[in-house]
UniProtKB/TrEMBL annotation:
CC annotations in GO: cytosol; nucleolus; nucleoplasm; RNA polymerase II transcription regulator complex
Gene Ontology terms, MF aspect: DNA-binding transcription repressor activity, RNA polymerase II-specific; RNA polymerase II cis-regulatory region sequence-specific DNA binding
GO biological process: myeloid dendritic cell differentiation; response to virus
InterPro entries associated with the record: AP-1, bZIP, bZIP_sf
Protein name: Basic leucine zipper ATF-like transcription factor 3
Record SUPFAM superfamilies: Leucine zipper domain (SSF57959)
Disordered: annotated span: 15-58
BZIP domain boundaries: 31-94
Residue ranges with Polar residues bias: 15-24
UniProt KW Transcription regulation keyword: yes
Name of the gene this protein is made from: BATF3
Family as reported in the entry's similarity comment: Belongs to the bZIP family.
Amino acid sequence: MSQVLPVACSVLQRSVATPGIQPQPQSPEDDDRKVRRREKNRVAAQRSRKKQTQKADKLHEEYECLEQENAGLRREIGKLTEELKHLTEALREHEKMCPLLLCPVNFVPVPPRPDPMAGCLPR
């Protein structure tokens, strides 16, 4: 049992209209107040959307910077890993011919070293 409202009713009037009760005619002051309120609301909504867009833009810029930093750090990890491999191999080669390690007087059993790469790199 719904009532058909006249087309001339505003959106605000329709939203508060009660079936069976006729809306009261609006005075020019009420219309002016409604227009000012709508304008104020429109401006506030624009400000809110602009602020939200600026926040999203700032987050996107921060994301881009962090991605670049992350890529640089990954490259550095790769270089350091290669350097560690090279130095480990150089040390192994040196240990094979080191006169201090080969001299029987200085001979102290050296336990095998664990792989230096095993515990320090991410999987």
